[in-house]
Amino acid sequence: MFDHDDYTRPADAGDRWSRMAFAGLSRSGAMLLALAALVVFAVTCRSATPDDDAGDLAASTYVPVGEWDAYYAFLSGGQSGSVFVYGLPSGRFIRQIPVFEPRAAYGYANMPGTEAYERLAATGGFWGDTHHPILSETGGDYDGRFLWINDKANGRIARIELDTFETVEVKRIPNLYGTHGVAVVSPDTSYVIANGEFEGEIPRRDPEPEGYRSIMAFLDPISLDPRFEVLLPGNADINDTSKDGRWAFTTIYNLERGLTVEEMIQRDEDAIAAIDIHAAERALERGEYAEIGGVRVIDPEQTTEKLLYLIPVPKNPHGCDVDPTGTYVMGSGKLSPTVTVIEIAKIDQVESPRLAVVAEPEVGLGPLHTTFDGRGNAYTSLFVDSQIVKWNIAKAVAGDPEYIVDRVDVHYNVGHTQATLAETMHPTGEYLLSLNKLSKDMFLPVGPTMPENQELIDISGERMRLLSSFPSEPEPHDVVFMRAEDLIPHVIQTEELGPDAVADGESRIERVGPDEVHVYMTAIRSKYGLSSFTVKQGDRVTLRATNVETIRDMSHGLAIDSYGINIALDPGQTREVTFVADKPGTYWYYCTWFCSALHLEMRGRMLVEPR
Ligand code: K7E
Ligand code: CUA
Ligand code: CA
Question: Nearest ligand to the C-alpha of residue 417?
Answer without folding.
Answer: 1
